[in-house]
Amino acid sequence: EDQVTQSPEALRLQEGESSSLNCSYTVSGLRGLFWYRQDPGKGPEFLFTLYSAGEEKEKERLKATLTKKESFLHITAPKPEDSATYLCAVQADRGGSNYKLTFGKGTLLTVNP
Amino acid sequence: DAGITQSPRHKVTETGTPVTLRCHQTENHRYMYWYRQDPGHGLRLIHYSYGVKDTDKGEVSDGYSVSRSKTEDFLLTLESATSSQTSVYFCAISVLGYEQFFGPGTRLTVL
Questions:
Q1: Inter-chain contact A99–B101, Cβ cutoff 8 Å?
Q2: B34: nearest Cα among B69, B1, B84, B68
Q3: Which of these, A44, A88, B16, B97, has the minimum number of CB atoms within 10 Å of its CB?
Q4: pLDDT score recorded for residue B96
């Protein structure tokens, strides 16, 4: 069974204080690892897809990295508008059309001005 | 904006009544999904579809059914709503089965 564990559950930062969120996963045959951002009362917003160990992707102050067992979402010099819940999900390569995502419970990030 | 709408956005109903939630997409993508999101559980897959009339169960499908008679619409039905089905329901679409794009959600309360 695919499993995703995110840590910490909550993180409070001061504006400009860089940090990282962790996503540990167990999956038999990784097809893709996905990061989403979710604001209160809204649907998850897609950020990144990572396909293989060693891959990195960046978007503004966010950089996602991937190893064979975990992914990190690095936040550089965060701003209050980066406050949100960040979700990690994995997709296994099982053939057919079962392309379901298994999500972690998320990290609630709060950035104080 | 992935062109996904969900209706209704909020609904309050009573135990035992049938409820249908609608997901509509404007992009004609092949894959569509229904999730529920609950505190402490995260997002969990209820049902998904990989084409018109092609659907399958997710991890929490008991008490739910789905139908997809047109590419653009994916319906989720609670045949007889229970309080345990109080949740926020999200629809998602996918082009090639990789990244999924989510709708705004439906908040359902079953009294």
A1: no
A2: B68
A3: B16
A4: 82
User: CB distance B42–A106 less than 8 Å?
Assistant: yes
Strands of A15-103, DSSP E: 19-26, 30-38, 45-50, 56-59, 62-66, 70-75, 84-92, 102-103
Point out the residue among B31, B42, B102 whose CB comes nearest to the CB of A104. Answer: B42
Q: First-to-last CA distance in chain B?
A: 33
Quote the mean pLDDT of chain B: 94
Please report residues of A whose CB lies closer than 8 A to that of B105.
41-43
Residue whose entry in the numeric block shows the structure tokens 């229904």: B34
Task: Tell me the per-residue pLDDT of B8-51, one tens digit each, with 9 for 90 and over.
Answer: 999 999 999 999 999 999 988 999 999 999 998 889 999 999 99
Question: CA dist A47 to A34, A36, A37, B60, B104, Å?
Answer: 7, 5, 7, 26, 16
